[in-house]
């Protein structure tokens, strides 16, 4: 893509030129990233599921963001366009995916150890007075 632009009369407007140059630099950087990632689609079926999900989310968000930028450049208010809802939907899915990934990193609880802690920490009234937990069982001293 040819990124050279003749500003003409707009060359006098330094604010416009600076904004255009900034946009141009960001788009060139984005183009480089996409050129690296798009060939991965050919190997998509060989990728593991988490890598597929991350690639899908990245590409969906990137393309919808580019559409947002296109609308802004054309002078259309993207906040009233359906692209806003689509971007919000993708952000929600990205958040859910991050929660799934973080779930794997959480420490797990050893249930048997937790049961032992709770059991030993509970007050047992029969233990305090020296009687068995089962009232039907009597001490040999009580029988005699």
Average pLDDT level:
81
Describe the largest sheet. none
User: Can you tell me the residue ranges where pLDDT is under 50 for at least 5 consecutive residues?
Assistant: none
Tell me, briefly, the overall form: elongated
Structural class call reads mainly alpha
Helix-strand string: HHHHHH
Portion of residues in helices?
55-70%
DSSP summary: helix tally: 6
Distance from N terminus to C terminus (CA atoms, Å) equals 104 Å
Number of strands: 0
Radius of gyration: 33 Å
Structural description of this entry:
The chain is mainly alpha-helical. 65% of the residues lie in helices and 0% in strands. The protein has helices at residues 14-37, 49-74, 83-105, 111-121, 125-129, 140-143. It is elongated, with a radius of gyration of 33 Å. The termini are far apart.
Question: Which terms summarize this structure?
Answer:
mainly alpha; 65% helix; 6 helices; 144 residues
Short summary:
This protein has 144 residues and is an all-alpha fold. It has six helices and no strands.
Annotate the secondary structure layout.
Elements: H1 14-37, H2 49-74, H3 83-105, H4 111-121, H5 125-129, H6 140-143
Helix pairs in contact: 2-3
């Amino acid at each position: 893509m040819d990124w050279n632009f003749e500003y003409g009369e707009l060359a006098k407007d330094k604010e416009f030129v600076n904004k255009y140059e900034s946009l141009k630099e960001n788009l060139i950087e984005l183009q480089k990233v996409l050129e690296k990632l798009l060939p991965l689609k050919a190997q998509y079926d060989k990728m593991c599921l988490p890598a597929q999900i991350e690639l899908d989310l990245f590409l969906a968000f990137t393309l919808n963001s580019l559409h947002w930028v296109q609308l802004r450049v054309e002078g259309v208010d993207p906040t009233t366009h359906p692209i806003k809802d689509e971007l919000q939907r993708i952000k929600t899915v990205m958040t859910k995916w991050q929660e799934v990934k973080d779930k794997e990193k959480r420490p797990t609880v050893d249930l048997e150890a937790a049961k032992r802690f709770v059991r030993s920490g509970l007050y047992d009234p029969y233990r305090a007075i020296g009687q068995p937990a089962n009232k039907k069982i009597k001490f040999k001293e009580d029988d005699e």
